[in-house]
Amino acid sequence: MRYSLLGKKLLFITAHPDDESYLAAGTIYRNQKAGGQSFLICATLGEKGKAHLKRPLSDSELKKVRRKELQNVVKFLGLKKLVLLGLPDTNVGKHKKTAYRKILSMAKDFQPDFIISFGKDGMSGHLDHIAIGQVAQKTAKTLNVPWVAVSRPRSFFKQLRSILKRRRRFGKYKIRRK
């Protein structure tokens, strides 16, 4: 069955600031232009994502930077509401029960037509993405709301299969060696 997402109430559930941008910025923007409302729940502030930085920042400094960046994106895309859960980056899986309880409560208030998040592969194999996608799916099922899973195209699975075999540890992806 095919659904049109545009012009609806959409709830996006992500793990980190910037996930909304590569996951669904175009959909969020077009939904707002079509008269719909988009809500974003972000689990962490991404304080461990330091690989791209030109100069070192502490976790608290990076949280401030990423919060401001996310607020700017929310304003530009025209999101109705942003909620930050404040869970620790790289540890969303350890806080799935807390995340589910909070997200379910907010989702009841938002009354979305669709819940959109990461699929089983987390797009990149990132454990935080996988965990928050599972929470989003459970929330959608509990509320009987369609869940839209965003994942890599099937044509990429063979080529990118090795990514799924990697583990997230100490802020880096590690390849398992035999």
Structural class by sheet pairing and helices:
alpha/beta
Q: Output the strand order for the largest sheet.
A: 3-2-1-4-5
Helical percentage: 40-55%
CATH arch. level architecture: 3-Layer(aba) Sandwich
| Morphology | globular
Q: How many H/I helices?
A: 5
Output the helix-strand order. Answer: EHEHEHEHEHEE
CATH fold label: Rossmann fold
CATH class: Alpha Beta
Domain module tally:
1
Low-pLDDT sequence parts: 167-178
Mean pLDDT: 85
Q: Identify the CATH homologous superfamily.
A: LmbE-like
In total, how many beta strands?
7
Kindly provide the radius of gyration, computed on alpha-carbon positions and rounded to a whole number of angstroms: 16 Å
Tell me the major beta sheet: 5 strands, parallel
Architecture overview:
It is a single chain. The longest helix is centred in the middle third of the chain and has 19 residues, at about 60-75. This protein is about 40% helix and about 20% strand. The chain is built from 5 helices and 7 strands. By secondary structure, it is of the alpha/beta class. The strands form 2 sheets. Strands 3-2-1-4-5 form a 5-stranded parallel β-sheet, with helices on both faces. A two-stranded antiparallel ribbon has the order 6-7. The chain has helices at about 20-35, 60-75, 95-110, 125-145, 155-165; strands spanning about 10-15, 35-40, 80-85, 115-120, 145-150, 165-170, 170-175. The chain has one domain (about 10-175): Rossmann fold, CATH 3.40.50. The model is unreliable at about 165-178 (pLDDT under 50).
